[in-house]
Amino acid sequence: MKIMRIAGVSLSAVAKHKVRTFLIVLAIVVGIATLTVIVALTQGANKKILQQINNFGPDAIMIHSGGGRLRGPSTVSEASLTKKDIADIRDIEEVKLVSPFQVSLDMPVKYKNKFTTSWVFGVESSWQDAWRRGVSKGDFISDADNEQLSKVCVIGRTAAKDLFGDADPIGENILIENVSFNVIGILEKRGQSPVGTDFDNLILIPFTTASRRLMNQPLYIAMARAVVFNPARIKTVIAKIEGILRENHRLAQTEEDDFRMTSPEEITKMIKGTSQTLDVFLWLVGLISPFVSGIVLMNIMLMAVSERKREIGLRRAVGAKKKHIIFQFLSESLVLTFAGGLFGVTAGVIIAVLISLSGKPISITWQPFATAFLFSAVIGLFFGIYPARKAAALDPASALSQK
Amino acid sequence: MIEFNDITKFFTSGIVRTDVLNGVTFKVNKGEFAAIMAPSGTGKTTLLNVLGCLMKASGGSYLFEGQDIETLNDDQLSEIRNKKIGFVFQTFNLLERTSALDNVLLPLVYSDVYPADAEKKAGRLIESVGLKDRINYKPNELSGGQQQRVAIARALINDPSVILADEPTGNLDSNSAKEIMEIFRILHKEGRTIIIVTHDINVARSSDRIIYLKDGKVEKEEVL
Question: Whole-angstrom Cα distance, residue A350 to residue A368?
């Protein structure tokens, strides 16, 4: 086929002009590798954000007692949530469950001669469903534990490691603020929170025990986690909870909320807000560098056209039509950009993997490959068409007479 | 088979008009070996470009095997050049870094049909110009005379109606020049139509008929 023969001409030209081929491929490699690395990095970051939102729970609302503070549990003096509030929220039809808990940050914990500080939560058994997190070993805190104000606890991995090393903590007694608790279970691993809190450095004790024996907070509740049936309805539920709490707390219209709520949406905003500017910048660099590669390609191809005028004139003299010349030069550009794309993606993946060794999250999926190939094709076509057309437009008679 | 009737050609550069061909009229018949004798600066190159369908005339009519060339578009001219004309240039115009065989096959790249025995045919042509053992040599490994022989083989690959040679011996020493002209004479004997454009009277004298060009017109014709 004629088209295959002309493509063959292009391939042999690529093979014969080694310096030119090397320079163009190098330019494309740099551009495509940059793009690949950036895609891998931003995708990795997005994947991490999604993971963190899932950790938080896309169907969950955190209700904090006390207003004002941006994140984290409120201090005890701001406590405002009551048992009635929880019961009323539980009655909202969209709400699947509500799990109240008490929190005390950085409590001193001791086992034999080892000390650590840990977040201590007073929880009900519903905590497991609210956080979709149970024990990996032993038992969770039961309703009976809550009724009897039992001094038992379930500990997270980090706290367990700090106190017990590799030994089995179950059945041992630890001291939390000089009150002795018996370890009955170990929590499933969860990792870090969206804001970098270690979700494994915590100790759970019965809600009632925490309220009365440890935190001296018998009337109020620090926080609660509400889970809805349908995440799409989360805004409505937040509005309903707000109404209930303002009414229960008898807040006048001019008064500010004495509670605060955190939804997955806010968490997303919080995380994305910081990384968005950087993302835009990265994408700009990522898109500009293949563009620069394209300009290099066009430049070198234009030089090639001007160097090969006689060849073009000869081809025209022996019967090449304009479209054959366009096809020849365009396929040269495409072969070079595809080769550049292939090596560029490979280089990009290697660089991304090297970057990930430093702890940055990356994601390598088929998309960077597809993007890179698409981009190299677009570069080849977009920046190759002008030199190719210029070659074809040469007057055969004067092209032949070129020295 | 080639009929130039009052062909004119002028070029304009800005408002300056240069008339190069001022009504050229001649005929070349099938199987003829004709020379167009044109000293430098008499429109030799322009005449050759029009004759070779590399550019169109400004006026007059050019019939090639009865076909009016002036009515054809760029693609159709390309096809005529591909199928009907075999070019031999003063500077050989072989593709660098490309074997003699591939140079000879070049016109077939742009042919609608690529004969199954194309390489054999190219091989035979290279053999017939005396380069059997140089078939895979590249131009820079061949002498001028050898390069011109490859160019002649290339001109023949599509069995053209006419071979159009532009100063074919202009860049060769006298021995090589003689050999090349000998090849043209053999091709003529085989029945091919050959037109040589030259300013060298000795080259022109190898032909059957000389058409003298002067000041963009045919001055006289001389049958040898």
Answer: 13
A164 contacts A210 by C-beta, under 8 angstroms:
no
Q: Which fold has domain B2-223?
A: Rossmann fold (3.40.50)
For residue B81, give the nearest of A5, A317, A322 by CB distance. Answer: A317
The domain boundary, picked from A197, A229, A261, lies at A229
Alpha helices in A93-153 (DSSP H): 127-131, 143-147
Instruction: Pick from B95, B104, B163 the residue to mutate for testing the A interface (most A CBs within 10 Å).
Output: B95
Residue A113 lies in a domain: yes
Q: Using an 8 Å CB-CB cutoff, list chain A residues near B108.
A: 5
Q: Enumerate residues 16 to 35 of chain A having a beta carbon within 8 A of any beta carbon in chain B.
A: 16
Find the farthest-apart pair of alpha carbons in chain A and give their distance in angstroms, rounded.
Answer: 105
Given the DSSP bridges, would you call strands A95-111 and B67-68 parallel, antiparallel or unpaired?
Answer: unpaired
Q: Of A42-56, A96-110, A177-191, A238-252, where does mean pLDDT reach its minimum?
A: A42-56
* CB pair distance less than 8 Å for A317 and B83: no
Backbone angles phi, psi at A166, to 5 degrees: -95, 0
Amino acid at B154: R
* Alpha-carbon separation of residue A357 from A30, A165, A349 (angstroms): 21, 27, 12
Task: Assess whether A99 and A224 both reside in one domain.
Answer: yes
Please write the tens of the pLDDT for every residue from B156-168: 999 999 999 999 9
Model confidence band, residue B224 (pLDDT cutoffs 50, 70, 90): confident
Q: Tokens 């390309």 — which residue?
A: B78
B173-194 pLDDT, tens per residue? 999 999 999 999 999 999 999 9
Chains A and B: how many Cβ contacts under 8 Å?
70
Looking at chain A, which residue has its C-alpha nearest residue B163?
A318
Phi, psi values for residue A253, rounded to 5°: -60, -30
Mean pLDDT value of segment A85-112:
91
DSSP string, A153-184: EEE-HHHHHHHHTTS--TT-EEEETTEEEEEE
- In tens, the pLDDT along A43-78 reads 888 787 777 777 777 888 989 887 654 455 544 446
Q: What is the pTM of this model?
A: 0.73
Residue A239 lies inside a defined structural domain of this protein: no
Q: Which residues of A touch B49 (CB under 8 A)?
A: 397
